[in-house]
Design brief:
The complex is a heterodimer of chains A (about 260) and B (about 325).
Chain A (H helix, E strand, L loop, with lengths): L5 E10 L2 E7 L2 E2 L5 E4 L6 H9 L6 E6 L2 E2 L5 H6 L2 E3 L12 H13 L12 H14 L14 H14 L4 E5 L7 H14 L4 E5 L3 H7 L2 E6 L2 E6 L1 H5 L2 H8 L5 H9 L1
Parallel strand pairs in A: 4-9, 4-10, 7-8, 8-9
Antiparallel strand pairs in A: 1-2, 1-3, 1-5, 5-6, 10-11
Helix pairs in contact in A: 3-4, 3-5, 4-5
Chain B lengths: L3 H26 L3 H25 L8 H16 L5 H23 L4 H21 L1 H4 L5 E2 L6 E3 L2 E3 L4 H24 L1 H11 L1 H6 L4 H27 L1 E2 L6 H14 L6 H16 L6 H15 L3 H28 L2
Antiparallel strand pairs in B: 1-4, 2-3
Classes of the chains: A alpha/beta (about 260), B mainly alpha (about 325).
Chain lengths: ~260, ~325
């Protein structure tokens, strides 16, 4: 079996008394779109933060393609080719859409020249044009990112992930806040990408998850509850319980059923 | 068609032309005293630009830039008065001292952001202010160091020296212009874009692979360089150095100048500095509380024009041009048969 793209060993993160990620042993094979689902507070985003270096783990290790990346700084992790999007959409609001892409492209693969004009760089410019085309934001290229709609910001974030040529993409609720049409577009995009890049996605929209995921890991309270194919997961009694509550919570089940 | 870009370009050319003509123009209209005020404004504008580079382009509000200004000053004064250096080595010593202390304090300061950063920069500048006041043999304390300026160059019979008022003026103009040009280049460069990205969203900047700490440190040292050059120029200009220029009050003034003029714009610090120094020169002879005017204006600008006077102007310009274009488009329509 080939080296998993992402693997954790006994990964643990506590916030005071709360154990956000508890002794997590996760192995994500390369070449399959992996979804992580679970109720709020399950530790999904914390897990992403630990991988991308925004948080330091209390114990345990993280391996990226067999390389120990535990304790690396965010920019170091990023330069290894692990890119992520944020749950709360996060771009550079006062830069234009094109500049957002531009600076992202430059951040990874070039030393930052202090005096050469940023505008004169045909390679980067072409790549920015291409990415604008891919995410369908060409018409908004010169708008400040801060003035975009939420869905467009999500697309821009996706573009920023793309333009940096990632090897592993961590998508934190990419379709959150999107309109149905935008969601469809984003799902299409993710499906295309997954042929070239390893993707791990956190998603609450179950229709999205079951449409795109090849493997699903369910987390609750910082631990893995179940892991398997979409069919296995949808049939798993414990997962139902974690999501929908126990049968005695009649009201809640009914509410969900009607939602 | 008139675009905001063309108007800005034209204004820049007019402004530079005015600065070049000023040593002859100003004495003809007002009097020669104002030429040296303009020279002083240029020096302080450069100082305000160092605040602007940090606050406007990296999002770090420093209340301690006077420290680097002071090191620039003392580098020159000690270089000339104590070490007997000639002009250029003393200039170099001043700038080097400022950059070195900026690097040293930056290593600690840029670990922090926002008010913590502001506080640590004040603390650093206070430490060195009190050191400078107390180490009297080296710094002259509050009295400062007076010195006689060596010539800038002398080739055969031709000597360039600050004792020639016009030479002094143009030397300052050339140096400040060069620094502003360098800053402009940096802002437009990949490095500059990365700095703005960090200002906008430092978490995101780290996630796209920017080394936030390192880039902030680079910006901090660059700002130290600008402050150091302005301090060195001010030492030449006044022929002395004094610890009082290292007090945080001086840093605070530059912050006000930069914010009122417009942070995040290249020319904001020039506008703000010019405004307040002209007010000071006009009012302070008649009324000792000219700082009141400064305070009221600062408050008004912060509330009414958060992007400063230059930001206000730029917005107005864009709107005006858009309206002019719309009007001309409408006339075009009407004239069609």
């Amino acid at each position: 079996m080939s080296e998993p793209v992402l693997r954790t060993e006994n990964l643990t993160k506590r916030f005071g008394g709360l154990i956000a990620v508890n002794n997590l042993n996760l192995s994500i094979p390369s070449g399959r779109l992996h979804a992580i689902i679970g109720p709020n507070g399950a530790g999904k985003t914390t897990f992403f933060n630990l991988v991308s270096g925004l948080l330091a783990a209390d114990s345990g290790r993280v391996f990226f393609k067999g390389r120990d990346i535990t304790g690396l700084k965010p920019h170091e992790v990023s330069r290894l080719g692990i890119k992520r999007t944020m749950q709360i959409k996060s771009v550079f609001p006062q830069l234009t859409v094109a500049e957002n892409l531009w600076v992202t492209r430059h951040a990874t693969n070039q030393t930052l020249h202090p005096f050469r004009s940023a505008a004169r760089d045909p390679e980067t410019r072409e790549r920015v044009e291409l990415t604008l085309e891919q995410i369908g934001l060409r018409a908004l290229a010169h708008r400040s990112a801060g003035t975009l709609s939420y869905g467009d910001i999500a697309l821009l974030e996706m573009g920023m992930a793309l333009i940096s040529d990632p090897q592993l993409l961590l998508l934190d609720e990419p379709t959150c806040g999107m309109s149905p049409a935008e969601t469809e577009r984003a799902v299409e995009k993710i499906k295309q990408l997954t042929r070239k890049i390893d993707i791990v996605i956190i998603e609450h929209d179950m229709s999205v998850v079951f449409e795109i995921a090849e493997d699903i890991t369910v987390m609750t309270q910082g631990e893995i509850l179940a892991s398997g194919s979409p069919d296995e997961i949808s049939g798993d009694e414990r997962v139902r319980e974690a999501y929908l509550g126990r049968p005695e919570d009649e009201d809640y089940v009914e509410e969900v059923a009607h939602a | 068609m008139i675009t905001p870009h063309i108007i800005s370009r034209a204004m820049l050319i007019a402004f530079v032309a005015f600065l070049i003509a000023a040593p002859w123009l100003i004495p003809a209209i007002l009097n020669g005293f104002w030429v040296s005020v303009i020279a002083e404004i240029m020096i302080w504008s450069l100082f305000a630009a160092s605040v602007n580079l940090l606050f406007g382009y990296v999002g770090l509000l420093s209340f301690g830039q006077a420290l680097y200004f002071g090191f620039g000053m003392y580098g020159v004064a000690i270089g000339i008065a104590t070490l007997g250096l000639s002009f250029w080595p003393a200039f170099g010593l001043g700038v080097f001292a400022a950059v070195a202390i900026a690097l040293l304090s930056g290593i600690f300061a840029v670990r922090l952001t926002w008010h913590y950063f502001a506080i640590i920069t004040v603390v650093f500048s206070l430490i060195f202010y009190f050191l400078a006041v107390s180490v009297k043999p080296l710094t002259g304390g509050d009295d400062g160091i007076n010195f006689t300026l060596p010539p800038v160059f002398s080739i055969g019979d031709v000597t360039g020296s600050f004792s020639d008022a016009n030479f002094q003026y143009f030397f300052i103009l050339a140096t400040v212009s060069l620094c502003f040009f360098l800053m402009h280049r940096v802002i437009q460069s990949p490095l500059g874009k990365a700095l703005v990205a960090i200002r906008d969203n430092d978490v995101r900047a780290a996630l796209i692979g920017l080394n936030v700490y390192q880039l902030r440190l680079i910006a901090f040292v660059m700002a130290g360089f600008l402050a150091g050059v302005s301090g060195a120029l001010f030492a030449f200009f006044g022929r002395y150095a004094s610890a009082s220029y290292m007090f945080y009050h001086v840093s605070g003034e530059a912050v006000v100048w930069a914010i009122v003029g417009g942070v995040g714009t290249l020319f904001g610090p020039i506008v703000g500095t010019t405004l307040f120094i002209v007010i000071r020169e006009l009012v302070s002879t008649h009324w000792e509380h000219h700082a009141l005017i400064v305070g009221v204006m600062a408050i008004l600008v912060v509330i009414l024009a958060p992007k400063g006077l230059v930001g206000l102007w730029n917005e107005g310009l864009v709107r005006w041009c858009a309206r002019a274009e719309a009007t001309s488009a409408r006339t075009d329509l009407q004239t069609e048969p």
